[in-house]
Design a protein that fits this description.
Oligomer: single chain
Number of helices: 8
Strand order of the largest sheet: 3-2-4-1-5-6
Shape: globular
Helix content: 25-40%
Structural class: alpha/beta
Radius of gyration: 16 Å
Order of helices and strands: EHHHEHEHHHEHEE
Distance between the termini: 25 Å
Length: about 200
């Protein structure tokens, strides 16, 4: 069975400041571009059956700078819709909701078109992405790469391992990194996590 490589996009201004960023399409910072370029050695020398990216610019630019080709935008790889918490830090949220936890509480509705998502909704989306890539993973044409965002990839990892969506809280994911999910004795496992050159 092929490996599933997860690439988190490089740094943006809001990832650096800790602001929740879903639909706000911020560009990579200069450091984020360097992070993306530095991933090329970790991604070359492999054959890929499928390369999917979030349609947001920060993910597509990361894929480009990392040297990935044949990238197909996949709307299902979009970051968790943070609703009314878009652009807000956890510290700011805790000023009025000291016990708030994204993984258990979700988010309040935001502006039109951004109702926010619960962990279960993000998990259902991750399941759809996993179903899409399963034929490629089961084949022998090469590995699969997903270029996306931290919280979404954490939920997807939990679901790939057979865990509830909220267990994505266990997998901290840094900007500009490659992680690899493989199999052992027919079961999905984490083989590498948060790898940088």
């Amino acid at each position: 069975m092929a490996d599933l490589l997860l690439v988190r996009h490089g740094e943006t201004e809001w990832s650096r400041s800790g602001q929740h960023t879903s639909w706000t399409d911020l560009p990579l910072t200069g450091h984020g571009e360097e992070q993306a370029k530095s991933l090329a050695p970790l991604l070359t020398g492999r054959t890929y059956a499928l390369v999917l990216s979030s349609p947001l610019g920060r993910a597509l630019r990361t894929a480009e700078l990392a040297g990935l080709t044949g990238v197909v935008p996949e709307p299902g790889l979009h970051e968790w819709d943070y609703g009314g918490y878009e652009g807000v830090t956890t510290a700011d949220i805790h000023r009025t909701r000291p016990d708030w936890d994204l993984w258990t509480d979700g988010v309040p509705p935001g502006p039109a078109g951004h109702p926010g998502e619960s962990p279960q909704q993000v998990g259902a989306r991750a399941d759809r992405v996993l179903a899409r890539v399963e034929p490629a993973l089961a084949g022998d044409d090469g590995d699969v790469v997903l270029v996306a965002h931290a919280h979404f990839l954490r939920v997807l990892t939990a679901r790939r391992l057979g865990l509830p969506p909220a267990e994505g809280r266990l997998f901290q994911l840094a900007t500009g990194t490659v992680s690899r999910l493989s199999t052992e004795h027919g079961r999905p496992v984490i083989t590498e996590w948060n790898r940088r050159p």
